[in-house]
Amino acid sequence: SRPKVWVSQPLFDDIVERLHAHFDVVQVPDVSEHDAAAIAAALREVDGALVTLNERIGRDEIADAAKLRAIANVGVGYNNLDIDALQARGIVATNTPDVLTETTADFGFALMMAAARRVTEAERHLRAGQWQGWNFKGLLGADLHGSTLGILGMGRIGQGIAKRASGFDMRVLYHNRSRLPAEVERAFNATYVDFDTLLAQADHLVLVLPYSAASHHIVDAAALAKMQPTATLTNIARGGIVDEAALADALANGRLASAALDVFEGEPAVDPCLLALDNIVLTPHIASGSLATRRAMVALAVDNLIAALGVGPDAGRPPSPIAPAKQDDNDAK
Ligand code: GLV
Ligand code: GLV
């Protein structure tokens, strides 16, 4: 009989369709987020699964999944997967790097600009009927051009942001677990600095590093205190990198000018302290969300699953599995 795969969410039917040529596709309706028992029940039946960052897959979820051989994550970040637990069981895990790099870098720039120039705050002001005429000193923001950009996590997306920054005549500083080769630094006109220098000198700091135990709350009260009170902070990586309570406190008390967050520690819940602030831009985890890119992510995940399960035309192609050590590299978001 044909191998079985589980597709955890409605994606793009015309792309997922390709799985039907090789597999029986198991539908499990109503698997709500982080529902470990439902995920375990779905995985128990199948050889492979196409999942998103909404599905947390660890030891418990795979305990009874005797046939499971591959998990294809639709997304570049994979902190939803316990890579060690999967590896210990010989289950291949894959993600979708590269295809979302430019789209995500675009959005990082959009958020940084929105925070610096108070775009969403200004729109709320206008929509609330508070606009009384051109206000010379109203809603003044900070410039991007000519300022210093700080990039924490200089992987593919970080490099995409650095590339865009050169068009804005920004000085680019970065910090990364491992320093880039000199020719790459030159290509992006980027200067390596230590974390404290990055915090102190960035006019605009963007977070694009992977989330792991090592990066949990790396931007905490102490880190925020090292930033300039005129600076902005943008997070398009994972919510848990930032101590949200400390950030809300800094924004409320004038120790940081503004922030933009696309990701949240308890998403989809958003800390009410953040919602109460005017000087913050809040978006619902859409950085990779152009139609073309979301389609490309699903297509790559489908290819990965087919390759990992060794069927069809992609059978001989290595599925670019996630290596356990990669979780600690800043190379992946
Ligand atoms: C989205 O956050 C992703 O990791 O692709
Ligand atoms: C994240 O994975 C990146 O590509 O920077």
Automatic annotation (TrEMBL):
SUPFAM superfamilies per the UniProt record, alphabetical: Formate/glycerate dehydrogenase catalytic domain-like, NAD(P)-binding Rossmann-fold domains
Domain D-isomer specific 2-hydroxyacid dehydrogenase NAD-binding: 109-287
Keywords: NAD, Oxidoreductase
Compositionally biased spans, kind Basic and acidic residues: 326-333
Pfam families in the cross-refs: 2-Hacid_dh, 2-Hacid_dh_C
Domain D-isomer specific 2-hydroxyacid dehydrogenase catalytic: 7-310
Bilayer-crossing regions: none
Keyword Oxidoreductase: yes
Chain residue ranges for the region called Disordered: 314-333
Alphabetized GO MF terms: gluconate 2-dehydrogenase activity
Domain of life (superkingdom): Bacteria
EC number(s) reported in the record: 1.1.1.215
PANTHER family recorded: 2-HYDROXYACID DEHYDROGENASE-RELATED, GLYOXYLATE_HYDROXYPYRUVATE REDUCTASE B
Family in the record: Belongs to the D-isomer specific 2-hydroxyacid dehydrogenase family.
The name this protein goes by in its record: Gluconate 2-dehydrogenase
Species: Luteimonas terrae
